[in-house]
Amino acid sequence: MLALQLLVNGIAVGALYALAAVGVALIFWTTRVFHIAHGATYLIAAYTFVSLHGNSVLLALVGSTLAAAVFGWGMNKFVYRPIQRSRESFFTLFVASFGTLIIVANVISLWAGSGPKALPPPFGRVQIGFLQVTWVAIIAIVVAVVFLLGLQFFLEKTETGVGLRAMADDVELVDLLGLNRRRYATVALILGSVLVVPAAILTTYVQGLTPQAGLRIATIALIVSIAGGVGSLAGAVVSAILLGVVENVSTLYVNASWGTAVGFSVLLAILVFRPSGVIPRPSAT
Amino acid sequence: MLQFTINLLIMASIAAIVASSLNLLIGYTGVFSIAHAIFYGVGAYATALVSLHWGSSLLLALVVALVSSGVLSVLLALPAARVTGEYFVVVSLAFALVASTVFAQWTPVTGGPAGLVGISRATLFGIGLNSNESYLVLSLALLALVTVILYVLIRHTPLGRSLQALRDDPLAAQALGKNPFRLRLTAVVISAALASTGGVVYAGYIAFVNADGFGEQGGVLFMAMVILGGAGTLSGPIIGAFFITLFPALLEFADLPSQAKGPLEQIIYGAALVLLMLVRPSGIAGIFSALSPGHWRRARAVAGADAGRQPVTGVPVPGEYTPTGGAA
User: Fold this and answer.
1) Quick one: which of A24, A236, B43, B225 could link to B240 by a disulfide (CB 3.0–4.6 Å)?
2) Helical segments of chain A, H only
3) What pLDDT is attached to residue A281?
4) What does the alpha-carbon distance between residue A259 and residue A280 come to, in Å, rounded to a whole number?
5) Residue B172: which H helix or E strand, with range?
């Protein structure tokens, strides 16, 4: 019974990881940047929501979405693109991204304090059979499914979406076809940043919020999207849910503080033994 | 004031030892690890355990630290067999997260969150290094030793040349019969072992060890030292380490509320990293060498090597799987 309960919790947590990870994956395909500043986007969205939500939840939603989108756009315009213009290595981009995360996390802890922030837990729990599931967990799963299906539809059916996928496969080909890869990079940064908003808000309801959450969530998003297989959205989602489930179910055997470490060890093992990812793209083999 | 300065110099030298070791990977092998604070931590914990159970011998602590750190680093190097370049950054980040959990939670050995207390100052050849001054000498001597080892290794051994060849052109190095995995493994083990010696000095000096500073945050700081100072130069990481350790000391004199100092320090590092990446990715050492015409050539070679790595990203090397899932 407990195992099943933990499984459901794990899926809910994993669904939120997946939302953070697909943003990172999308940005990596198109810009080849390890966007660890995604953690900064997460913090900006979550803290905006927390500080506005007393006035109106709708205002808070709009505010945090806008803030995330503007930050993603600005990252690309003022940090990534200037560095890429001078043809610097990926590590230069990564360090700049990391620097931005450090700045944002610490500006926030100056402004809002480094202590944890919490939102009042809404809605309570629901009994399904013998399972006790929080409404937040159900909402997390539903929201993740809706957003991921929406993203899938966008990538499959729209011209911009197809262009984004093409860039994951071969950037030079996109150039040759005369498509504007800078525009795709902008789209990916904004879209990826907006995708982290629901994850930021719902995770804050479940676990609370500290300035350190940014690095944690960005690390999770990065490793999950790499372990999933580059260019594979489904792989990122599967490994995100795997991490969430392992994290939760492992508490049957070990202390809860080991959860993330156990989950990461599993993902590391996957990277060692199956470096092309959980679900490698068939087109690229 | 003198003790304050000695304390800063010891901490800066310790940081420089770790950063220089890390530079063997980042600057000379092209392996981008941000897990190096872990090996620094292994050195510190090893010294603490030796001191608590077997006595205060410096040489014994050094041997235990070198061996345990070298052995543990094989775990980090394993993914480097197949995961290279940018992907390794993520692997090392995950490794750091797992290992720092072990530091903080493996209570029977590491003391858990409370850490280990009562570590004694080291003794060397029967002489107790009890004063702070003697630890300053020890840390500077160790820094000099590590630098010399790295200098000889990089400039005067076949291994050093092979590593740089692998960094600059993995494909060509492989074509010449170099085994990339074995080379990277060797570099990771040597680098981790050297970094642990910084932890040996730290644990004896502070007399207390817990998980703080040995996780991802610390790893990022060491990476920042290498990058800010200038990767791929022997002086770069030392400059970076002294800069990053001494600079916040200036904030001590500023009239600021104490809880604002930590974040402010971090904001300065972060801003320095971003600005430097935008303006001059070859680091502070690059600025100095640009000023002296004699070193201009070398600075350009370093920058060129950096740029030369660009096309490699995302392009899998034949025979070496990368998680791009690309044509292998």
Assistant:
1) B225
2) 2-31, 38-52, 57-74, 81-85, 90-112, 135-157, 159-169, 171-176, 181-207, 213-227, 233-249, 259-273
3) 58
4) 26
5) helix B170-175
Give contacts of A110 with chain B, Cβ < 8 Å.
260, 263-264, 267
Residue B143: the pLDDT is 92
Give the burial string for A104-124 (b: 16+ CB within 10 Å, else e).
bbbbbbbebeeeebebeeeee
Residue B318 lies in a domain: no
Count how many domains chain B has. 1
pLDDT at B159: 82
A102 closest CB neighbour out of B86, B90, B266: B266
Whether B325 maps to a domain, the answer reads: no
Tell me the pTM.
0.83
CATH number at residue B39: 1.10.3470
Confidence of residue B281 (pLDDT cuts 50, 70, 90): low
Rounded Cα gap, residues B233 and B151, in angstroms: 10
> Is the per-residue pLDDT at B310 higher than 70?
no
| Domain extent at residue B225 | 2-312
Tokens 């070791």 locate to B21
Give A128-163 pLDDT, tens digit per residue: 777 777 788 888 889 889 998 998 888 888 888 888
DSSP A131: E
Name the strand (E) or helix (H) holding B59: helix B58-80
Give me the residue from A271, A280, A285 closest to B83, CB to CB: A271
φ, ψ of residue B26 in degrees (nearest 5):
-65, -45
Q: What is the pLDDT of residues B124-140, one digit of tens each?
A: 776 767 778 888 888 99
Cα B320 → chain centroid: 26
- CA B160 to each of CA A63, B103, B122, B186: distance values in angstroms, whole numbers, following the listed order: 53, 32, 33, 11
Alpha-carbon gap: B86 to the closest alpha carbon of chain A (Å): 7
Q: In angstroms, how far is the first alpha carbon of chain A from the final one?
A: 41
Shortest CB distance from A98 goes to which of B220, B321, B326?
A: B220
A188-234 pLDDT, tens per residue? 899 999 999 999 999 898 888 999 889 889 989 988 888 887 767 88
Mark residue A280 as left, alpha or beta (left: phi above 0; alpha: psi -120 to 50; beta: remaining): beta
CA nearest to A35, candidates A96, A84, A85, A88: A96
Q: How far is A221 from chain B (nearest CA, A)?
A: 10
What type of residue is A19? Answer: L
pLDDT digits (tens, 9 = 90+) for A177-198: 777 778 888 988 999 999 999 9
- All structural domains of chain A, each given as residue ranges with its CATH number in brackets, are 2-284 (1.10.3470)
Residue B302: inside a domain, yes or no?
yes
CB B65 within 8 A of CB B42: yes
Nearest CA in chain A to B328: A285
Query: In Å, how far are B21, B74, B145, B190, B194 from B149, measured between CA atoms?
Result: 10, 21, 6, 10, 9
- Assess whether pLDDT exceeds 50 at residue B321: no
Residue B2 Cα, gap to closest chain A Cα (Å): 31
Least CA distance to B321: which residue of chain A?
A275
Query: What's the half-sphere exposure (Cβ side, CA atoms, 13 Å) at A173?
Result: 10
Residue (of A143, A148, A187) closest to A164 by Cα position: A187
